[in-house]
Amino acid sequence: MGYVIVKYGVDWIVALVLLLLLAPVISGLLLLLTIAGQESPIFSQARVGYREQVFTLYKIKTMYSTEVLKQQPWLGSFCRFLRQYSVDEIPQLGNVLKGDMSLVGPRPLLVEYLPLYSNQQKRRHQVRPGITGWAQVHGRNALDWPKRFALDVWYVDNYSLKLDVKILARTLAHLIHPKGVRPEGLTDFEKFRGNSANQ
To answer: How far is residue 115 CA from its own chain's centroid?
Structure first.
């Protein structure tokens, strides 16, 4: 219980500092995408978090219509770069400040998946979801669903300050040499259709 309180406090402080440091860069990026995409540069989606509570997750929008991409040919490559290096995830620091998420934890998934989980898989919601997690540093979206869920539940049973620091360090290494990133960048993986359909 003690580390839960420390974890929340560290999350909040780190998220605030990072947002303040990155504010000029992100503001410029959002302005550029607003002009180029001619619409809001923020993508939002309902996700399931701690104790199965639904919250709104935020990302930088990286998917645009064919018409927009024809008008702005550079935009597709630029958005792929943002996804590859997880720049599109930065707005989730705001979710951390709100208490919806942690820096480290199982990735929050779509609401439609909730009734499809086994009781064991539902245990991933016993901690706050994270911007990065144990599954992300073991293959990210290259993993199949059973492996991802197994790693998420393992984290729930074993999380600690030492483990969180290890995950954050590995995440930084993965950002330098990214791999396992889905091109779509919206749903984190191919759709989960239940355990019998994903064996």
So the answer is: 21
